[in-house]
Amino acid sequence: MLRDREDHSLAAEFARSMDRTSSVDHESTSDVLEWMEQRHRAHDFQVNRIPLADLDGWNFEPGTGNLVHRSGRFFTVEGLHVTREEPHQEWQQPIIKQSEVGILGILAKEIDGVLHFLMQAKMEPGNSNLLQLSPTVQATRSNYTKVHKGSNVRYIDYFLSRSPAHQILADSLQSEHGSWFLHKVNRNMIVKTAEDVPEHEDFRWLTLGQIGQLLLADNVVNMDARTVLACAPVRHEEPGALWPDSEVLSRFSWERARQVVRAERIPLADVAGWKRGEASIDHEEGRYFGVVAVSVAAGSREVSGWSQPLFEPYGLGVTAFLTRSFNGVPHLLAHARVEAGFLDTVELAPTVQYTPENYRHVTGPSRPPFLDLVLDADASRVRYEAVHSEEGGRFLNAESRYLFVEVSESEAPDEPPPGYLWVTPGQLTSLTRHGHYVNVQARTLLAVLNAGCVRL
Known about the structure:
Strand content: 35-45%
Number of strands: 25
Helix content: 10-25%
Number of helices: 10
Shape: globular
Low-confidence stretches: 1-5
Radius of gyration: 21 Å
Distance between the termini: 24 Å
Largest sheet: 7 strands, mixed
Structural class: alpha+beta
């Protein structure tokens, strides 16, 4: 079993950090929020929409119409033609192709006997409030190799070196949004150091308990921090599970094996059902998302100004795990979800992961399972709810309501519909040690549990 290999002493370190809701400097949650507001005021952050033609360093490639950077690096916006056999579906869409493996890394250090994590107040152009709490390092390979000719990425060496003073606590390759990225992978790392770490005013040492309290608020902890925290070696006390690990893996493997999805890259200029205007590329029915352009000024970034394309979804997403207890053990109803951009076709996702506006016209059996159950849930059954931003470096104003919703057996039976399976938080945590099992939305909700800010 995967969970039999846990390092119990390491899990105990994380548990002590989870129980501490003030840092070594006795900072409270309100102190951290005030510090973030100060860092926002200290830098000149501006993001403005611009016409696609005004993108500096980007152009629509002759012939393909793909949106590319002059360096040949960073990412491209291309077209994707998707065919799914069962149920039969076929569509075309723009997609972000970013082949580089970036690093999302949190530096950890024991301070006065408690594990602290070095978190950054970082600006991302797509965030509605611009500045959010991010990992110590959040960088593509192009960033940390300085393709942009900017300044060095702070603290990157802790994640690139193999010093005896550094202990790797978590390290796995994880996917990102499979609906908008094609085969996008980032290395998610937590590295513990025994060295003295140079201080910088845009960074703060926080306990896991503090981060957990910040996860209760809207748009404070960014997506990259959440995905790394989901990979933390946290131990969940679970005397038993509805299905053993072997059964969970078997059911997941069956779903991955039976799904036949073909995703073929095509020129952006040939994508059917989408139209290119002066300021954006949009679906002809006004749904899903648009490709837009922005100019950015950011005093605290490695480069102080640039322009870039961003994907802008239409509507607030709803992302939720349904929860039930079996023999006193909390379980989550996971969805073996197909997304065209996944490297392995299927990953475990929350029960519900949709933008309701895109399904307003859909009724009957075609309506997404469990969506209305979440939308209509009484507040007394909602165990957690907060609005979180998605990847602010590639998406503009992309936000979702994240929830845990308690349900009854009649609403979500012991043997759920095909494509759904009951897992414990511990089982899901164990799978994050490996790549391409747990999707980025599920990892956000797992981070909420791992940080101890909600009890199911």
